[in-house]
Amino acid sequence: xxxxxxxxxxxxxxxxxxxxxxxxxxxxxxxxxxxxxxxxxxxxxxxxxxxxxxxxxxxxxxxxxxxxxxxxxxxxxxxxxxxxxxxxxxxxxxxxxxxxxxxxxxxxxxxxxxxxxxxxxxxxxxxxxxxxxxxxxxxxxxxxxxxxxxxxxxxxxxxxxxxxxxxxxxxxxxxxxxxxxxxxxxxx
Length: 188
Known about the structure:
This protein is of the alpha+beta class. The protein has a single domain, classed as 3-Layer(aba) Sandwich (Aminopeptidase). The protein is 26% helix and 29% strand. The chain contains 5 helices and 8 strands; from the N terminus they run E-E-H-H-H-E-E-E-H-E-H-E-E. The chain has helices spanning 35-43, 47-54, 63-70, 122-136, 151-159, and strands at residues 15-18, 24-29, 77-84, 91-100, 106-113, 141-147, 163-166, 172-178. Strands 1-2-3-4-5-6-8-7 form an 8-stranded mixed β-sheet, sandwiched between helices. The longest helix is centred in the last third of the chain and has 15 residues, at 122-136.
C-alpha cells in the first residue's frame, strides 16, 4: 500500500511514494504539460469507471477540456496526479482535485484511479493530501458525488467520516466529508 509521508505538508510536493513490494510513483500537482497524459489517462478508462466518475458515459476528453483541467487555478482549488515513470515514459495513474465554490469552508472533491492500480491505496493518498492542502486554506468539508454501486469509493468516504445520502431520482450518492476525518495523523 502507498502511504503518504506523515505529517504531510503542502510544501512536500512532489513526493515519491513506494509500496513495500517496490511499486513507486510520484505525487505532484497536475501541470499544463500533462494535457496529453491526462487525455491518455481518460481514454484508458472502462465504461464503468466513466459512469462511476461522471455519472454518465462521457465519450471523449477534448484537448481544450484537458487543457482547462490541467490549468493551475490555485485560487479555487488544487489538482494532484499520481504519476508512474519519468520523462516521455511518465503516465498518470490517478488524479484528484478539489474546487472551492461560493462557501470558502466547503469544496467539491473528485478523484479517479486507473483500473489497473486500484487497491494500492492511491485514493486514500489523494484524499489525505487534498485534505491537508484544503485544510491549510480554511476548507472544513468536502462534498462529492458518486454512483450508489461504487462501493470502493463509498467505503473510503465512510472510513474517513463521510455522511452519505441518496440523490433523489438518480443512482447517485452525495457525500459530505469533514476534512478533520481525512487528514492523516502525524507520527505518534
